[in-house]
Amino acid sequence: FDYTIECYVPAAKRRYGYYVLPILYRGRLIGRLDAKAHRAEGVFEVKALFLEEGMAPSDRMLVEVAQAIAATAVWHGTPKVRLGRCRPAQLASVLRSHWHA
What we know:
Elements: E1 20-25, E2 28-38, E3 43-51, H1 59-75, E4 80-87, H2 91-96
Parallel strand pairs: 3-4
Antiparallel strand pairs: 1-2, 2-3
């Protein structure tokens, strides 16, 4: 798992996002997430979520990742979650189904 926090990388050279962080799930690094809390609007924006190549997510994994994102949003005081880019793209609808907007 090769990781760089990309806020120190010129914008044109970023692969994942300005403040991308690893996603640790049950002791394994499974992906990356770039998020921003918009406190004035009460929105936790997941700008991008990427699973690692070859990662075949189980239903349980998706539910637990969605729940962790929702809990993080509430902790930030931004209970509405908005999802931008997602790889693989079909994960977006599964994740959104676990959030109340």
